[in-house]
RNA sequence: GCGCUCGUCGUUCAAUGGAUAGGACGCAAGAUUGCGGAUCUUGCGAUGCAGGUUCGAUUCCUGCCGAGCGCACCA
C-alpha cells in the first residue's frame, strides 16, 4: 500500500490504540472518521462498535480510552472524549509536515494503487458520433472523461476504446487510390467495405513502390482536412460503406454466438424469435434475434463484448449511458456471464438533464444544443472579463472566457450524483458565483497571484509548527485528504465526490485567505510556512481540477 | 399490472445507521486606505405521510401519497 499523509497518522493512532486496548483488536484505519466540527478534534474514533466487547456503553468506553493516556504522541497533542467519540487533536505541525513531504511530487499526490494490475475499459459515446449534441450528451462525456482520469489515478491500466480515426492519412491513401486507379467504378453491392479494403491495400503497395506519388497523397489529405467538396463527398460515401461493413461483420459474428447459446440451451426460441428468459433474475426477457432471423443491437453487443474481452484482456468494463438503458445492460451482462465471462462489468446510468419547463424533446424543439449553450456562456464570460480587465487583448479575453465557460459547464455536470436528474437552468449556468466552476478557477487564480508576489520572500526552512491557526489546520487536513477522495470517487464511480471536495477546499482557502495574511504575516517564519501551505493547497486544487477534466487558467 | 430511480430550507444539491441535518442560489444585514469584492462574515429557512427494526433513522424494512423512467422483434 502506498502511504498517504493521513494514512501515516491514522495507522500510527490505530496501532497505538490496539497496543493499549485489547478489545480494539480488529480496529482498522478506516474506522477513524473526521469530526463534523474541528472544535471536537481533527480525527475521531466512534466507539459504538467496540462497546460490547469492552463491556461498557459507548460513552463510558470513549472516556476510558481518552483517559488511558495520549496515543501516537508523535502526531497527536490531545485526546478527549465527547459522548461516544474519542477525538484526537493533531499537533500543529503534524499534518503540514506529512502534507509538504507528500507534495514534493505533486503530480503523484492524489494517486493510489487500489487498481494496480487491473485493466479497465470505459466506454462512452464520443462527441463526434453525434450530430445533435445536446447538453444531456455533455453530461455523458464529462462523466466519461472524469472517470477515466480517476481510474488512471487509482492505478488501473486503461484499455483505450478504438475510435477509428477517420480523418487520418490512411483514409487519404485510400481515397487517393480510389480516385487514381478506380475512378467511376462501382463496388459490388453488399461488399463495399471489402472492396474498399482491397483498394486501400493496392494504394498502399503502389505508394511504397513509387515514392513519387507521395505529394499526391498529401494533397488529398490536405483537401480532406479543408473539406474540399469533391474529396469530402467521396469521404462521406466511403465512410458509410466501411461503417456498414463493420456493423454487418459484427452482426454476423453475433449471430454465431446466438447460435452457440441456443445449442447450449442458454437461449431458446419463443414466438419465432430467439430469447433468453431472465424472469427469474427479475430482468424480464432478453431478445437476441428477431423472428425473421435478423439481428438486433443485443446481437452486435454480444459480439463486441466478446471481442473486447479477448482482444484487450481487460478485467473490468464500464459502460456509461443514459439511465434508461439500465435494464438492457443488466440483461447483457447476465447473458455474458452465462456465456462464461467472469469479468467485472459495470453500467453507470446517469439521469437526464432536463429543462425547468420539462424534459428535453427534439420533437417539440425543446432542446438546448451544446454549441449554442457554450457560445452563450462564453459571451457572458467575455463581457464579465472585459469589465475587469479593459487592458487585456481581445485574444486573451477570448481565451479566458472560453476556459471559464468550459469550467462552468463541466463542473455543473459533475457536481451532482450521476443518478440525480439535473435541472438545467440557464440562469445558473451563466452564474459564476458560489458552487460553480468559475469559483474554483477564481480561487486558483488568486492563489497563483499571491504566490507570484511571494517570489521575493527569502526561502528557508519551513517550520510547519507555526501553522497553528484553526483556518490553517483545517485547510491542511482537507488538502491532505485528496488521495482518500480520489479512491472513494473511483470506487463509487462518482466524480461528484471529487467536485464537492475541490469546492470545499476553495471555501476553506477563502477563510484562510481572509484571516491569515501571507505577505504581511506577523513575522517572516510564519509567512514562509503560510506560503508553503498555499503552495500545497494550490497543488491539490490543480490536481483535482485536472482529474475532473477542467482546464486551468493562471488569471482571470 | 410488474420493476427500477427519486421525494431534505422558497429553489437547487450534501450528509459509511451516529456528534447541533451541511452548502449554493435567492432574501436581509455587514466587511478600519491591507495579499484579486467573480471574495468573505452574520441572519432567516427543510427531512412527503403513517407504521416498524435500533441505544440511535434523512439513511434500513412495510404501506400510502407524489414525480420520473423502463418492461419482446426499435436503436
From TrEMBL:
Residues 7-90 form the Arginyl tRNA synthetase N-terminal domain. Keywords: Aminoacyl-tRNA synthetase, ATP-binding, Ligase, Nucleotide-binding, Protein biosynthesis. It catalyses: tRNA(Arg) + L-arginine + ATP = L-arginyl-tRNA(Arg) + AMP + diphosphate. Pfam families: Arg_tRNA_synt_N, DALR_1, tRNA-synt_1d. Residues 440-556 form the DALR anticodon binding domain. One of its GO terms (cellular component) is cytoplasm. The keyword Nucleotide-binding applies. Its EC number is 6.1.1.19. InterPro entries: Arg-tRNA-ligase, Arg-tRNA-synth_N, Arg-tRNA-synth_N_sf, ArgRS_core, DALR_anticod-bd, Rossmann-like_a/b/a_fold, tRNAsynth_Ia_anticodon-bd. It is an enzyme of class 6 (ligase). GO terms for molecular function: arginine-tRNA ligase activity; ATP binding. This is Arginine--tRNA ligase. It comes from the Bacteria. GO terms for biological process: arginyl-tRNA aminoacylation. Belongs to the class-I aminoacyl-tRNA synthetase family.
Amino acid at each position: 500500500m502506498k502511504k498517504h499523509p493521513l494514512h501515516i497518522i491514522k495507522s500510527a493512532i490505530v496501532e497505538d490504540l490496539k497496543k493499549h486496548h485489547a478489545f480494539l483488536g480488529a480496529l482498522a484505519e478506516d474506522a477513524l472518521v473526521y469530526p463534523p466540527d474541528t472544535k471536537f478534534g481533527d480525527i475521531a474514533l466512534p466507539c459504538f462498535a467496540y462497546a460490547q466487547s469492552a463491556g461498557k456503553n459507548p460513552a463510558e468506553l470513549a472516556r476510558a480510552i481518552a483517559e488511558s493516556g495520549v496515543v501516537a504522541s508523535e502526531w497527536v497533542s490531545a485526546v478527549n472524549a465527547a459522548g461516544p467519540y474519542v477525538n484526537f487533536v493533531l499537533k500543529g505541525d503534524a499534518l503540514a509536515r506529512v502534507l509538504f513531504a507528500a507534495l514534493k511530487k505533486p503530480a503523484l499526490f492524489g494517486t493510489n494503487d487500489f487498481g494496480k494490475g487491473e485493466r479497465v475499459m470505459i466506454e462512452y459515446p464520443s462527441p463526434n458520433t453525434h450530430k445533435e449534441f445536446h447538453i444531456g450528451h455533455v453530461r455523458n462525456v464529462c462523466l466519461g472523461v472524469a472517470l477515466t482520469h480517476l481510474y488512471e489515478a487509482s492505478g488501473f491500466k486503461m484499455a483505450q476504446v478504438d475510435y477509428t480515426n477517420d480523418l487520418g492519412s490512411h483514409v487519404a491513401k485510400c481515397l487517393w487510390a480510389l480516385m487514381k486507379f478506380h475512378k467511376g467504378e462501382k463496388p459490388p453491392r453488399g461488399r463495399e467495405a471489402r472492396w474498399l479494403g482491397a483498394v486501400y491495400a493496392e494504394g498502399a503497395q503502389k505508394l511504397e513502390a513509387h515514392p513519387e506519388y507521395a505529394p499526391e497523397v498529401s494533397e488529398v489529405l490536405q483537401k480532406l482536412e479543408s473539406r474540399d467538396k469533391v474529396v469530402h463527398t467521396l469521404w462521406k460515401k466511403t465512410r458509410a460503406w466501411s461503417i456498414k461493413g463493420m456493423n454487418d461483420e459484427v452482426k454476423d459474428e453475433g449471430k454465431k454466438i446466438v447460435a452457440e447459446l441456443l445449442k447450449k440451451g442458454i437461449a431458446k426460441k419463443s414466438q419465432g424469435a430467439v430469447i433468453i428468459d431472465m424472469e427469474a433474475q427479475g430482468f424480464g426477457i432478453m431478445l437476441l434475434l428477431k423472428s425473421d432471423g435478423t439481428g438486433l443491437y443485443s446481437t452486435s453487443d454480444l459480439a463486441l463484448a466478446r471481442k473486447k474481452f479477448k482482444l484487450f484482456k481487460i478485467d473490468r468494463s464500464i459502460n456509461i449511458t443514459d439511465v434508461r438503458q439500465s435494464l438492457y445492460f443488466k440483461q447483457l451482462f447476465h447473458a455474458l456471464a452465462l456465456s462464461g465471462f467472469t469479468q467485472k462489468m459495470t453500467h453507470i446510468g446517469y439521469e437526464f438533464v432536463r429543462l425547468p419547463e420539462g424534459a428535453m424533446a427534439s420533437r417539440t424543439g425543446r432542446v438546448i444544443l451544446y454549441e449554442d449553450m457554450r457560445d452563450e456562456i462564453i459571451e457572458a464570460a467575455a463581457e464579465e472579463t472585459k469589465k475587469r480587465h479593459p487592458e487585456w487583448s481581445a485574444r486573451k479575453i477570448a481565451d479566458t472566457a472560453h476556459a471559464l465557460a468550459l469550467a462552468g459547464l463541466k463542473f455543473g455536470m459533475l457536481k451532482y450524483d450521476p443518478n440525480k436528474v439535473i435541472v438545467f437552468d440557464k440562469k445558473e449556468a451563466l452564474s459564476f458565483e458560489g458552487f460553480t466552476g468559475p469559483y474554483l478557477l477564481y480561487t486558483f487564480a488568486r492563489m497563483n497571484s499571491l504566490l507570484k508576489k511571494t517570489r521575493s520572500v527569502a526561502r528557508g526552512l519551513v517550520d510547519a509548527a507555526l501553522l497553528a491557526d484553526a483556518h490553517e489546520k483545517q485547510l491542511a487536513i482537507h488538502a491532505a485528504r485528496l488521495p482518500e477522495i480520489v479512491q472513494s470517487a473511483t470506487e463509487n464511480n462518482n466524480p461528484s465526490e471529487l467536485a464537492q471536495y475541490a469546492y470545499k477546499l476553495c471555501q476553506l482557502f477563502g477563510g484562510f485567505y481572509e484571516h491569515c495574511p501571507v505577505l504581511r504575516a506577523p513575522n517572516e517564519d510564519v509567512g514562509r510556512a503560510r506560503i508553503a501551505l498555499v503552495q500545497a493547497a494550490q497543488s491539490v486544487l490543480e490536481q483535482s481540477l485536472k482529474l475532473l477534466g477542467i482546464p486551468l487558467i493562471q488569471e482571470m
